Amino acid sequence: MASLDLVDLGAKGASKKQIKSLTDAMRPSNSAIAPFLPSM
To answer: Is residue 37 part of a domain?
Structure first.
């Protein structure tokens, strides 16, 4: 579900810095959301 939230944020123009802070906060889930974040 977190990955869908990040995709939604990306669609709304969230900055890479904001998205990175979210991924850092959810580090245990990085493997699940990495496909949605090419900047990683």
So the answer is: no
